[in-house]
Amino acid sequence: MHGAAMTEQIAPPPPGPSPLRLAMPADARSRAQRRLTRYSRMVQVLKVLLPVIALLLLILVAIWPHIRPQDERFRIGIASLGDGDAGQLGMVNPRYVGTDDAGRQYTVSADLARSETPDAAEVELEMPKADLVLEDGSWLVLTANSGLYTQATERLDLSGSVTLFHDSGYEFRTPSVDVYLDQNRAVGTRPVEGQGPFGDLAAEGFEIVDRGRTVLLTGKARLVLYPGLAEAAP
User: Fold this and answer.
1) Which burial class, exposed, middle or buried, applies to 56 when counting CB atoms under 10 A from its CB (0-12, 13-18, 19+)?
2) All domains of the chain, ordered by start, with CATH?
3) What's this model's pTM, rounded to 2 decimal places?
Protein backbone atom coordinates (compact mmCIF):
# COMPACT_ATOMS: atom_id res chain seq x y z
CA MET A 1 0.00 0.00 0.00
CA HIS A 2 1.44 3.11 -1.12
CA GLY A 3 1.55 5.91 1.44
CA ALA A 4 0.27 9.29 0.43
CA ALA A 5 2.87 12.06 0.17
CA MET A 6 2.09 14.89 2.51
CA THR A 7 3.35 18.41 1.89
CA GLU A 8 3.45 21.21 4.47
CA GLN A 9 2.76 24.69 3.28
CA ILE A 10 4.36 27.55 5.29
CA ALA A 11 2.23 30.61 5.48
CA PRO A 12 3.99 33.95 4.71
CA PRO A 13 4.64 36.19 7.74
CA PRO A 14 2.11 38.86 8.42
CA PRO A 15 3.00 42.26 6.99
CA GLY A 16 5.01 44.50 9.35
CA PRO A 17 4.08 48.06 10.37
CA SER A 18 4.51 50.78 7.77
CA PRO A 19 7.42 53.30 8.27
CA LEU A 20 6.48 56.35 10.32
CA ARG A 21 5.98 59.44 8.23
CA LEU A 22 5.72 62.98 9.63
CA ALA A 23 3.33 65.23 7.90
CA MET A 24 3.91 69.07 8.13
CA PRO A 25 0.98 71.33 7.59
CA ALA A 26 1.10 73.31 4.37
CA ASP A 27 1.24 76.70 6.14
CA ALA A 28 4.21 75.59 8.29
CA ARG A 29 6.09 74.40 5.21
CA SER A 30 5.43 77.76 3.57
CA ARG A 31 6.76 79.72 6.56
CA ALA A 32 9.92 77.61 6.73
CA GLN A 33 10.51 78.10 3.03
CA ARG A 34 10.14 81.87 3.38
CA ARG A 35 12.61 81.96 6.30
CA LEU A 36 15.10 79.95 4.30
CA THR A 37 14.70 82.27 1.33
CA ARG A 38 15.24 85.38 3.48
CA TYR A 39 18.34 83.87 5.09
CA SER A 40 19.81 82.99 1.69
CA ARG A 41 19.20 86.53 0.44
CA MET A 42 20.83 88.03 3.54
CA VAL A 43 23.92 85.84 3.08
CA GLN A 44 24.19 86.90 -0.55
CA VAL A 45 23.88 90.60 0.38
CA LEU A 46 26.53 90.33 3.12
CA LYS A 47 28.93 88.61 0.73
CA VAL A 48 28.78 91.74 -1.43
CA LEU A 49 28.34 94.41 1.25
CA LEU A 50 31.15 93.49 3.66
CA PRO A 51 33.98 93.65 1.08
CA VAL A 52 32.61 97.00 -0.13
CA ILE A 53 32.62 98.43 3.41
CA ALA A 54 36.18 97.17 4.00
CA LEU A 55 37.31 98.77 0.74
CA LEU A 56 35.70 102.10 1.63
CA LEU A 57 37.42 102.11 5.03
CA LEU A 58 40.80 101.47 3.42
CA ILE A 59 40.22 104.32 0.97
CA LEU A 60 39.20 106.67 3.79
CA VAL A 61 42.32 105.84 5.81
CA ALA A 62 44.50 106.48 2.77
CA ILE A 63 42.99 109.85 1.78
CA TRP A 64 42.21 111.26 5.24
CA PRO A 65 45.56 113.09 5.66
CA HIS A 66 44.98 114.78 2.30
CA ILE A 67 41.44 116.01 2.94
CA ARG A 68 42.19 117.75 6.25
CA PRO A 69 42.63 121.53 5.94
CA GLN A 70 46.28 122.23 5.17
CA ASP A 71 46.25 125.55 7.03
CA GLU A 72 45.19 123.91 10.29
CA ARG A 73 48.15 124.80 12.48
CA PHE A 74 46.43 125.01 15.85
CA ARG A 75 43.90 122.76 17.56
CA ILE A 76 42.49 122.69 21.08
CA GLY A 77 41.44 119.64 23.04
CA ILE A 78 39.31 120.54 26.09
CA ALA A 79 38.79 118.12 28.95
CA SER A 80 36.18 120.34 30.63
CA LEU A 81 34.94 123.90 30.32
CA GLY A 82 33.57 126.17 32.99
CA ASP A 83 33.49 129.69 34.30
CA GLY A 84 36.83 130.81 35.68
CA ASP A 85 37.61 133.56 38.17
CA ALA A 86 36.69 137.18 37.49
CA GLY A 87 34.36 136.28 34.63
CA GLN A 88 37.04 134.48 32.61
CA LEU A 89 36.54 131.27 30.72
CA GLY A 90 38.52 128.34 32.09
CA MET A 91 39.70 125.18 30.34
CA VAL A 92 40.92 122.29 32.47
CA ASN A 93 43.77 120.20 31.03
CA PRO A 94 43.93 122.05 27.68
CA ARG A 95 46.07 120.63 24.91
CA TYR A 96 47.26 122.81 22.03
CA VAL A 97 48.68 121.10 18.94
CA GLY A 98 50.33 122.97 16.07
CA THR A 99 53.12 122.81 13.51
CA ASP A 100 56.10 125.06 12.92
CA ASP A 101 56.88 126.62 9.55
CA ALA A 102 58.72 123.44 8.53
CA GLY A 103 55.76 121.17 9.31
CA ARG A 104 57.14 119.72 12.55
CA GLN A 105 54.59 119.25 15.32
CA TYR A 106 54.69 120.96 18.69
CA THR A 107 52.39 120.47 21.67
CA VAL A 108 51.52 122.81 24.53
CA SER A 109 49.57 121.50 27.51
CA ALA A 110 48.70 122.90 30.94
CA ASP A 111 46.75 122.21 34.09
CA LEU A 112 44.45 125.16 33.39
CA ALA A 113 43.93 127.78 30.68
CA ARG A 114 42.02 131.05 31.02
CA SER A 115 40.87 133.60 28.48
CA GLU A 116 38.46 136.51 28.34
CA THR A 117 36.49 135.10 25.40
CA PRO A 118 36.50 131.80 23.48
CA ASP A 119 38.28 133.47 20.54
CA ALA A 120 40.68 135.59 22.62
CA ALA A 121 44.09 136.31 21.06
CA GLU A 122 45.93 135.41 24.27
CA VAL A 123 45.45 132.47 26.62
CA GLU A 124 46.82 132.36 30.16
CA LEU A 125 48.22 128.99 31.24
CA GLU A 126 48.88 127.46 34.63
CA MET A 127 51.69 124.89 34.88
CA PRO A 128 52.31 124.85 31.12
CA LYS A 129 54.46 122.31 29.31
CA ALA A 130 55.75 122.61 25.74
CA ASP A 131 57.10 119.70 23.67
CA LEU A 132 59.02 120.61 20.50
CA VAL A 133 60.58 118.43 17.83
CA LEU A 134 63.74 120.09 16.51
CA GLU A 135 65.15 120.01 13.00
CA ASP A 136 67.60 117.18 13.71
CA GLY A 137 64.83 115.02 15.17
CA SER A 138 65.75 115.65 18.81
CA TRP A 139 63.19 117.02 21.25
CA LEU A 140 63.04 119.92 23.69
CA VAL A 141 60.68 120.10 26.68
CA LEU A 142 59.96 123.30 28.60
CA THR A 143 58.00 123.55 31.85
CA ALA A 144 57.04 126.54 34.02
CA ASN A 145 54.64 127.75 36.68
CA SER A 146 52.71 130.01 34.30
CA GLY A 147 52.59 131.03 30.67
CA LEU A 148 50.91 133.21 28.10
CA TYR A 149 50.15 131.84 24.65
CA THR A 150 49.56 134.23 21.74
CA GLN A 151 47.77 132.43 18.94
CA ALA A 152 48.45 134.86 16.08
CA THR A 153 52.25 134.77 16.49
CA GLU A 154 52.51 131.25 17.99
CA ARG A 155 54.53 132.68 20.84
CA LEU A 156 54.65 131.17 24.32
CA ASP A 157 55.93 133.33 27.19
CA LEU A 158 56.91 131.20 30.19
CA SER A 159 57.66 132.49 33.68
CA GLY A 160 58.29 131.10 37.13
CA SER A 161 60.81 128.28 37.62
CA VAL A 162 61.27 127.67 33.91
CA THR A 163 63.12 124.43 33.11
CA LEU A 164 64.37 123.32 29.69
CA PHE A 165 65.23 119.69 28.97
CA HIS A 166 67.02 118.54 25.82
CA ASP A 167 67.15 114.84 24.95
CA SER A 168 70.94 115.02 24.61
CA GLY A 169 71.20 115.52 28.37
CA TYR A 170 71.13 119.31 28.78
CA GLU A 171 69.03 121.01 31.44
CA PHE A 172 68.63 124.78 31.90
CA ARG A 173 66.82 126.72 34.64
CA THR A 174 65.79 130.37 34.36
CA PRO A 175 63.03 132.67 35.69
CA SER A 176 61.48 133.33 32.27
CA VAL A 177 61.83 132.57 28.57
CA ASP A 178 60.04 133.52 25.35
CA VAL A 179 59.43 130.58 22.99
CA TYR A 180 58.70 131.13 19.28
CA LEU A 181 57.04 127.84 18.49
CA ASP A 182 56.87 128.32 14.73
CA GLN A 183 60.65 128.86 14.56
CA ASN A 184 61.95 126.40 17.18
CA ARG A 185 63.58 129.39 18.84
CA ALA A 186 63.74 130.46 22.51
CA VAL A 187 65.12 133.62 24.09
CA GLY A 188 65.86 134.17 27.77
CA THR A 189 66.96 137.57 29.09
CA ARG A 190 67.13 136.56 32.75
CA PRO A 191 70.00 134.71 34.47
CA VAL A 192 70.26 131.06 33.48
CA GLU A 193 72.13 128.12 34.94
CA GLY A 194 72.30 124.51 33.97
CA GLN A 195 74.33 121.43 33.28
CA GLY A 196 74.95 119.01 30.47
CA PRO A 197 77.25 116.20 29.36
CA PHE A 198 80.18 118.64 29.32
CA GLY A 199 79.74 120.26 32.76
CA ASP A 200 77.98 123.26 34.37
CA LEU A 201 77.17 126.72 33.00
CA ALA A 202 75.76 130.05 34.14
CA ALA A 203 75.05 133.23 32.15
CA GLU A 204 73.00 136.40 32.17
CA GLY A 205 70.84 135.10 29.35
CA PHE A 206 70.67 132.64 26.49
CA GLU A 207 69.16 132.05 23.07
CA ILE A 208 68.35 128.82 21.22
CA VAL A 209 68.88 129.39 17.49
CA ASP A 210 69.48 127.43 14.26
CA ARG A 211 66.27 125.46 14.72
CA GLY A 212 67.45 124.19 18.09
CA ARG A 213 70.97 123.18 17.01
CA THR A 214 72.80 126.00 18.84
CA VAL A 215 72.55 127.50 22.33
CA LEU A 216 74.09 130.95 22.72
CA LEU A 217 75.00 132.27 26.18
CA THR A 218 74.58 136.05 26.43
CA GLY A 219 76.08 138.58 28.83
CA LYS A 220 78.60 137.46 31.41
CA ALA A 221 78.92 133.68 31.23
CA ARG A 222 80.73 131.02 33.24
CA LEU A 223 81.38 127.51 31.98
CA VAL A 224 82.91 124.73 34.07
CA LEU A 225 84.11 121.77 32.02
CA TYR A 226 84.62 118.30 33.41
CA PRO A 227 87.18 116.53 31.20
CA GLY A 228 85.86 113.06 31.93
CA LEU A 229 82.32 114.05 31.03
CA ALA A 230 83.39 115.97 27.97
CA GLU A 231 85.27 112.95 26.58
CA ALA A 232 82.28 110.69 27.21
CA ALA A 233 79.80 113.08 25.58
CA PRO A 234 78.77 112.15 22.01
Assistant:
1) exposed
2) 74-232 (2.60.450.10)
3) 0.59
